[in-house]
Amino acid sequence: MAIWLTKKLFILPLFLSSFCLLYFPRKIGLTLFSTSLVAFFSLWTSYLFAKQVLTFEEGSELARKIAEAIKEGSAGFLRVQLKTITRFSFICALLIFFAYFARNSPRDSSLTNFQVASVTFFCFLTGAACSAAVGYLGMCMSVRANSRVAFCAGKSYELGLTICLRSGAVTALLVVAFCLLGIIFLYSILYLILPISYERVPFLLVGYGFGASFVALFAQLGGGIYTKAADVGADIIGKIEKDIPEDDPRNPATIADLVGDNVGDCAGRGSDLFESIAAEIISAMILGGVLAQRTNIESGMGFILFPLGLHASDLIVSTIGILSIQTRKSSSFPDVEAHPNKLAVGEHESPFSTLFRGYKISLILAGVSIIILSRLFLYTSDAPDAWWHFALCGIIGLLCSVAFIKITQYYTDSEYEPVKLIAESSTSGHGTNVIVGLSIGMISVGLFCIVICIALVLTYRLGQDSGLYDRVSNGPTGGLFGTAIATMGMLSTAVYILAMDMFGPIADNAGGIVEMAGMKGTCREVTDQLDSVGNTTKAITKGYAIGSAALASFLLFSAFLDEIRDYTGRIFETIDLSIPEVFVSGFFGSIVVYVFSGYTMKAVGIAAQAVVAEVRRQVSSCPKILSGEEAPDYQACVAIVTKEALRQMIAPGAIAVFSPIVVGFTFRFLYPYDVDPLLPSKCVASFLMFATSSGVLMSLFLSIGGGAFDNAKKYIETGVLGGKGSDTHKAAVTGDTVGDPMKDTAGPSLHIFIKLIATVSLVLGPTFVRN
Questions:
Q1: Considering Cα of 606, then 610, then 611, then 617, what sign does the dihedral take?
Q2: Distance (Å, rounded) from C-alpha 501 to C-alpha 754?
């Protein structure tokens, strides 16, 4: 189905390419034409990768049955989840329509309220549909790849690693290609049919980002609650109470656990990165348009189209990096022929070294493309040095992504001291494991924040010194656009990063199928090795996503200020925290972060309790399950987790959507002492500032701390400190059950939350302004 849909979608970029070339001015048309053409070839490459993966066998009959059960469970959950999200999306779209329709008209708008409301309504639904589509297609690919990776792992280590990465690359290419095509389609239509200048069109695209963020949050919440509730339930019964291995077929929650990898780590993460890229592109286009208007530069169109060009280059450079992957022999086995009985995985370097080598190739090519595209798009005779200032901003963003990856690897990889320290603390009990693990998560926040702060200041100053001047105030400008370029630089290898992220759950599923099907040979060792690096790549993606979310939220915040200023004609550049209402709103923003995180953690706990109760019921009522004489009822656990995940995702999702609305309308309608028509907007801005800073810190702590817990357990399972089944291992499992909802539910959902509240504020900002 996924391949069929991908093939049918080829006509869209071809149509867009021809349309843009024929009906647009030369520079705009060529840019949109080439970008959509790159998206077309990326869809084709995705199709070829998928076709290659699906040519391999699925293994034994038992392996096929297990894979089919995982596929049915994943598809069943997503069908129900998408129906729920669809209803919520239409309700939200209608509320947006009426909010825009009922507001006062902007001071100098050439569009009616009805036109703006209709455009925002349509853009919201388009963004929501694209976000849901890439998540669903990602799940479709992962559930078909898992058994084939298991089969390939039995053939050779090299084949298993290559097919696992290319399976993840299918979704990664679709995510960025869909995002570009959606924005190009909307920009083209709105530019041609509406009587507005090209600089103003990006403001109308905010609905697209809102729709993408809306779906991504609920997809991540539902999938994250599902996967970690099943995982925690399976671990508590299997590893702590009954001493049976992970993914053992005697555990009734095993299939639910494997389903969770697909609906949470594949579908949820696909929608997550889609909305990250969409929010970053749209906010950068808005800032580029504002810069073009204020400076009156000759070639202002390049500042708006630059984000599209850079992400098109991401598709190219990341594909080259993925195709360059080749394993190398390990230096510890210089003469393979002298060790014919050694296992295949031991003869090679670690999977992470192989994957990171491909990433370095993409990184270098991305740096070159940033410089070339900056010269092509951002050169202006009015400020001839501006282009290389902005190119440096992009390079700084690229270096930030490397720093985030290295910091995350240090705190979550078992080769380094923090994870070993958590493992050693497990020797003295469950409590010390949790204490040390939480402390590692807190400490890890420091380096991330230092990198983010340095990047923000450096890129802002580089942009300010670019030689561009505001034609009204005659002061230097361009700082915010410099920060936007840095964010784009961070995401300029997003395709490769997402492919590495998808690598993890596919390898995890493959290992589960190997264990449940009892596949012999080196299969389990190869899949275990791939799975262990998969945990690290997933943690790296979370650190990468949170870092980019921090910069993207800053851009959205700046775009919100620009939107209010353009709507009202008033200067809106500073937020005075000495005003009690403004300070209280900021304090409320920090509170909401903790409340949201608490609800997501509680949701996993409630759903996991239901899983544990069901597993205990099955095991106690039928002792033959543990002896292997009778198969458990896997579908009972799948049904329970599906029901609880969908029910529990509503409360935290509602908090994210409605909290900025409550702040804005409270101070517009209910506050009796308002003498400043911009007070509601200032309160919302303060809310965003505090929520973003608190949310980034909390998300880093949850994601990195949870990843460290998980890899400490994996480290002990390699045989150190007593190995599997020991008291040390059981203590580490307890820490892992604490870390699971931190890293895969609360942490990822929180960084979507901070972008969603900024997008909601940007979309509804004008409605907060008093008459």
A1: positive
A2: 21
Count of positions (residues) in the chain = 771
pLDDT top residue among 496 and 253: 496
524-578: per-residue pLDDT in tens? 777 777 777 776 777 777 777 777 777 777 777 777 777 777 777 777 777 888 8
pTM of the entire predicted model: 0.85
Secondary-structure percent of the chain, ordered helix, strand, coil, rounded to 5: 85, 0, 15
Tokens 């997402």, residue located: 498
Q: Which of 46, 42, 45, 36 is nearest to 15 (CA)?
A: 36
Structure tokens at 12: 């869209």
Query: pLDDT tens digit string along 674-724?
Result: 567 788 888 888 998 899 889 888 988 988 888 888 888 888 887 888 877
Rg (CA), the chain: 25
HEC string of 340-387? Answer: CCCCHHHHECCHHHHHHHHHHHHHHHHHHHHHHHHHHHHCECCECCHH
Residue 194 three-state SS = coil
Q: Is the dihedral of CA 77, 78, 80, 81 positive or negative?
A: positive
At CA 87, angle to CA 99 and CA 608, rounded to 5? 120
Q: Where are the alpha helices (DSSP H) in 622-649?
A: 624-627, 634-648
- From 221, 192, 218, select the one nearest 204 (Cα to Cα): 192
User: Would you state the structure tokens that stand for residue 334, as one six-digit string?
Assistant: 């210089």
CA 538 vs CA 212, 412, 416, 736: distances in Å: 21, 10, 17, 15
3-state secondary structure of 606: helix
Query: For residue 197, which phi and psi values (nearest 5 degrees)?
Result: -75, 160
The label of the residue with tokens 């097919």 reads 163
- For residue 494 the two structure tokens come to 């997003």
322 CB burial (10 A radius; 0-12, 13-18, 19+): buried
| CA distances in angstroms from 728 to 242, 425, 712, 721, 735, listed in the order given | 16, 9, 11, 7, 11
* 3-class SS string, 696-713: HHHHHHHHHHHHHHHHHH
Q: Is the CB of residue 468 less than 8 Å from the CB of residue 383?
A: yes
Q: Count Cα atoms within 13 angstroms, Cβ side, for 215.
A: 36
Crossing angle (nearest 10°) for helices 430-464 and 479-490? 130
Q: How far apart are CA 732 and CA 521, in angstroms?
A: 28
What is the spatial distance between Cα 335 and Cα 592, in angstroms, rounded to a whole number?
59
What's 11-53 look like in SS3?
HHHHHHHHHHHHHCCHHHHHHHHHHHHHHHHHHHHHHHHHHHH
Q: How far apart are CA 768 and CA 663, in angstroms?
A: 9
Place of tokens 């169109």: 301
| Gap between the Cα atoms of 431 and 221, Å rounded | 28
CB 604 within 8 A of CB 645: no
